[in-house]
Amino acid sequence: MEKTADGLLATEWWRATDAELLTALGEIEQLNRRAYAATLAVHAEARTRGLTGGYDSTRQAVHDAARLPITEVRRREAHVELLAHSPAAQQAAQHGLLGADHLDVIAGTLAALPSQVEPEDRLLAENILLEHAPSLDARALKRAARHLLAWLDQDGPEPVDAPEPPVNEFHLSTTRTGHVRFTGRLGPEDGAVLAGLLSPLAKPRPTEGKPDLRGVGERHGDAFAELLHLTANAAAAPIDGGERPHLTLTISLDALREQLGTAQLGGPADLATLTARQARRLACDAKVLPMVLDADSHPLDVGRTKRTAPAGLRRALTWRDGGCAFPHCDRPPQWTDAHHLAHWVDGGPTSLDNMVLLCRKHHTLIHHSEWEVRIRDRLPEFIPPAFIDPDRKPRRNLLHGIRGGISIDRVRGRGGWLRGEQASLCRERRPRRLPDLGQQGEAVVGRPLPALP
């Protein structure tokens, strides 16, 4: 291990190519994870022996020997317990597929399972998490784990006989400088309305070709202020849910096809310059107003707007993808663009099998990186660059639920399994999205859903 570290430290990384650096980052992280698994093995042996070294406990001995905070020692004890009871997790950790953060999520999820969950369901939950953990970071794995917990405990916690807090609250105060501070909360229905109104107003707004440098909090604050003015005027309202802005994009057809040159966005009063690549990405999901120019750039003809993602197709994409389809992205549908796999400028059809929903971040990534996207079995899947996965194994988003893949024939409640009409009624009252179960879920999944028309 020391020789490996010496070799890495002696490497002249400035000589490496970009691809070699990215590959090295992945390989070194895998080495770190394997080293952490070895640390847990030593820790486990110390606990088995009851090793104290003269201290009051093994915990205190580890605390001083490794110079770790007590909180970190307790964290590692939880990881030791997990690996002791899960040979599969132990093997994955030893191969560098799981890091400490992954083990946190898996251990925490298994500990959070209600007591009424049967042993075979606990094992199923563990297998699902271990299957997907190698391709997810800890944050994405935690989101998937929440879906898994909701599926295994669909009734939620036992009801408590206590007065319910108010659903809607709003507290307002004015400072000496005239600024207004407020706190509060909204119920699920009203909260969804507010989120839907803020979303189109809070999107980044580049100016003069420069990116929007406002943080998320500032953008939402500006959006809320704009919403107040819209409400006061009571004549305008934000438009969202598949309706993209009306933009005048001036670019030659050859430049748009070849992704070379520049484009002009907007009118004379708010003219902005985009690269041809940016224009091509924008044209994926926008109302495009064709403008034919003569040799002196005088307009000869202005066409009608062409909606490249009609409302009906947008609804079908929303149903299928559930939001940004990029692996472990949780952006909702209203934050996404409709991306053409084969660009419509190149003759690609505007159809469900040639389009996928992507948030602005991942839309840009697909246009400017080695990530590839394709439709397989009528569902989008993404192929990572070789420096992320040398095998380039396709990945899918597991966080928006299953669309067009499987249906559920039975639902588990506190009283046991519900089947047939009872399960349908249960799902109608309390719909749940399931994680991708893969081979582990064959015992609880039903027949395939019919393909979209």
Describe the 3D structure.
The protein has about 450 residues and is α+β, with helices and mostly antiparallel strands. Among the domains are: about 1-150, no CATH class; about 185-235, no CATH class; about 245-305, no CATH class. Helix content is about 40%, strand content about 15%. The chain contains 15 helices and 16 strands. The strands form seven sheets. It has a three-stranded mixed sheet with strand order 3-7-10, with no helix packed on it. Helix 4 (about 70-85) packs across helix 5, helix 6 runs parallel beside helix 8 and helix 7 packs antiparallel against helix 8 (about 140-150). Mean pLDDT is about 75; it is low at about 240-245, about 265-270, about 300-305 and about 400-453.
Question: Nutshell version of this structure?
Answer:
The chain is α+β, with helices and mostly antiparallel strands and 453 residues long. It has helices at 2-10, 18-49, 58-65, 70-85, 87-94, 100-112, 119-132, 138-152, 188-201, 216-233, 253-258, 276-282, 311-321, 360-368, 420-429, and strands at residues 169-174, 180-185, 246-247, 249-250, 262-265, 272-275, 287-288, 291-293, 299-302, 306-307, 336-340, 355-359, 372-376, 379-383, 410-413, 416-419. The strands form seven sheets. Strands 3-7-10 form a three-stranded mixed β-sheet, with no helix packed on it. It has a three-stranded antiparallel β-sheet with strand order 4-5-6.
